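Weekly modeling sync, notes
Attendees: AB, CL, MP (scribe)

Item 1: holo prediction request
CL wants a bound-state model with flavin-adenine dinucleotide before deciding which constructs to order. AB pointed out that an apo prediction alone won't tell us much about the pocket. Agreed to run with the ligand included and paste results into these notes for async review.

Input as submitted:
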Amino acid sequence: MTGGQRACSSLHLASTPRGSDHRSSSAEAYLTPVENERSNLVVLVGHTATTVLFTADESTGLRSAYAVRFAPTPANATAGPPSQEYIVSADHEVILSAGAIQSPALLQRSGVGTKHLLDVLGIDIVVPLEGVGRNLQDQAATPLAAGSTVNDTGGTRVLDAIAFPDVDALFTFGALDGGANVSETISSDIPGWAASQAAAGGGVSAEALETIMRVQAHNILHDKAAVLEMFFYEPAPDGLGMNVWGLLPFSRGDLSVTSTNPFTPPAIRGAYLAADIDLAVAVAGARAVRRLLHTPPLSEIVTQELVPGTAAVPDAGDGGSDADWAAWVRSAYISNDHPVGTAAMMRRELGGVVDARLRVYGTQNVRVVDAAMLPLQISAYLSATVYGVAEKAADLILEDMRAGGR
Ligand SMILES: Cc1cc2nc3c(=O)[nH]c(=O)nc-3n(C[C@H](O)[C@H](O)[C@H](O)COP(=O)(O)OP(=O)(O)OC[C@H]3O[C@@H](n4cnc5c(N)ncnc54)[C@H](O)[C@@H]3O)c2cc1C
């Protein structure tokens, strides 16, 4: 895994804290060491940024953020608009790090987004930017389970074992046809997926999404990035779990604010499994799990498949039909809570929202530094990459400040 092999498997030792052990966090690693020493740092919890305020810069034609409005976060998630708001002014720039759901929502409420959406809500347009909130890529996860003869109440063994198969390994092992033509299918079906996903609102145009998806396909077919995570774990003393989730979906969702009330959550269209290849990956993964449960040495400790079980997905000796697996996957999948891409670093005509220095197009001094800027889903968990994005952003900000003589 650390040797550059992208499709691989790994064993994770349990990292549950014992005794005086504890897990670190981004706050502990980055904030705690400086929070009592820096006189120019204020951390305000329990408050929500509601709008970024802009002025026009006549000399550049760009919009410049001069302040951010914020309000106490209400305890009630269905609260009405804030009764009291505050304004903090921005001397240099505004950095949004509210995550892949809330950063684009904050941009939209501030007048940066699709003209049609802003018009409908009566929000003054600051920068018409079609990509804000589009290109949403989450990962759909499907949990399977089996009974086991092992009673591991002590929890002393390896907790997790994870396989990251590439497209060839996955379909060879998990597809009824052994993966015949999967590479050709991915290459030839991209225009159709791009058209359907763009028409539903997941991209600014079919042409733009096709360009992006061809990069993604190169990653999958040429560079052999893992397309699926198969996560084996022990959910109960006498049970085994196997979660499968597609890592690099071709489905594209979108999100939009539905109100000028900053406490009204945005409407999210996840578009999970909307592109048929994403469903095919999930089905191949689920069938592969069933095969593994019947294969030694795992089969030696498995008593029976519990979820989905052969009542839901009958097995006539072939591991189950595609249609039965697809119906079950559609009923059982959940979000993996890994949204990315909604304020992506890409060319503006592709639906990009930020440039290569993470600045929002059309603005002079607003950056997005969080998972929203990733243009494509990654073949892994997200946190480490988001830390990398933040470290890189810190360098860019320092460089720009120094270049400006500050
Ligand atoms: C249940 C769960 C389990 C996960 N497990 C893992 C895992 O095991 N490994 C892994 O690598 N990744 C995991 N992830 C994914 C990972 O946590 C996220 O990808 C990552 O935190 C994204 O970072 P971010 O900075 O983009 O957004 P976030 O971490 O969501 O940070 C955004 C912050 O902004 C705040 N905020 C939002 N709106 C506003 C506003 N208007 N004003 C002020 N503040 C605002 C939020 O409260 C939040 O603190 C998990 C996610 C979830 C939800």
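Recorded for review: The chain has a mean pLDDT of 92.
Action items: CL to compare against the apo run; MP to circulate these notes.
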